[in-house]
Design brief:
- By secondary structure, this protein is an alpha/beta fold.
- The protein has one domain: NAD(P)-binding Rossmann-like Domain (Rossmann fold, 3-Layer(aba) Sandwich), CATH 3.40.50.720.
- The protein is built from 8 helices and 9 strands.
- The strands form 2 sheets. Strands 3-2-1-4-5-6-9 form a 7-stranded parallel β-sheet, sandwiched between helices. The protein has a two-stranded parallel sheet with strand order 7-8.
- It is globular.
- The structure holds 2-hydroxyethylsulfonic acid.
- 2-hydroxyethylsulfonic acid (8X3) binds next to loops.
Length: 247
């Protein structure tokens, strides 16, 4: 039986991915900050799940949780780097610097640290890494500033990892979803339910399960096949043009 670790599994894409993998016969280590939600998810999944509650930004806690994994869950074959967030939609000149720090700490520094921690195991087991980036890493939009920057990092880091892991048999994929209806916008707006409803309302956004099924598909492809990068959007979302400020 293969084992995956899914970060940010307390809700949204992470939770759906843990459920999809478990449904396909994988063992899953689910991680996140909210221990009650993780326990509920793990008990729902049953003995194929192990809940490891820690703040992904706390490197010592992350290392301790990995070191303390039960023997049956130590052999990680798949790392799903899902934990991440956007904070704020204001222009750069108006934002709180701490929001930028939190995004960098979570989306970049924590992702890098857990990847580094698990690389020896993944190499030993010829495993796989699926990193969660975003269309915001490719296409700039107003208010995307550091969020988009962190996701551009994840995209390029993923491609670089592919290169470094050449010959090891480890697969690396990066997924760039567009609009997915999860707690993402509630978190981004500091709990503004109306903003979240307005964004997703009538748009038929992608669901967490759409992305979870994509991750499951990537993870179960034959071992000679690597999806380098995959961008997804709901049909209702597309691109807008440049803006011009006039005197
Ligand atoms: C966020 C995607 O389209 O909501 O990762 O900016 S989008």
């Amino acid at each position: 039986m293969k084992t995956a670790i899914v970060t940010g599994a307390t809700s949204g894409i992470g939770e759906a991915t843990a459920r999809a993998l478990a449904g396909a016969g994988w063992q899953v280590v689910v991680t996140g900050r909210r221990a009650d939600r993780l326990e509920a998810l793990a008990s729902d999944i049953g003995q194929a799940a192990h809940a490891a509650a820690f703040d992904i930004r706390d490197e010592a806690a992350m290392r301790a949780a990995i070191a303390k994994l039960p023997e049956a869950f130590k052999g990680i074959d798949l790392l799903v780097n899902n934990a991440g967030l956007a904070l704020g939609t204001a222009p750069a000149q108006q934002v709180d610097l701490n929001q930028w720090r939190t995004m960098i700490d979570t989306n970049v520094s924590a992702l890098v640290a857990i990847t580094h921690e698990l690389l020896p195991t993944l190499i030993e087991r010829k495993g796989a890494i699926v990193n969660m980036a975003s269309v915001a890493g490719t296409y700039p939009y107003s208010g995307g500033n550091v969020y988009g920057g962190t996701k551009a990092f994840v995209q390029q880091f993923s491609l670089g990892l592919r290169s470094d892991l050449h010959g090891t048999g480890v697969r690396v994929s990066v997924i760039d979803p567009g609009m997915v209806e999860t707690e993402f916008t509630l978190i981004r707006t500091g709990g503004d339910q109306a903003a979240s409803d307005t964004l997703y309302g009538g748009a038929t956004p992608m669901t967490a399960d759409d992305i979870a099924q994509t991750i499951l598909w990537i993870a179960t492809l034959p071992p000679h096949l690597n999806i380098n990068r995959l961008e997804l959007m709901p049909v209702s979302q597309s691109f807008a043009g440049f803006q011009v400020a006039r005197a």
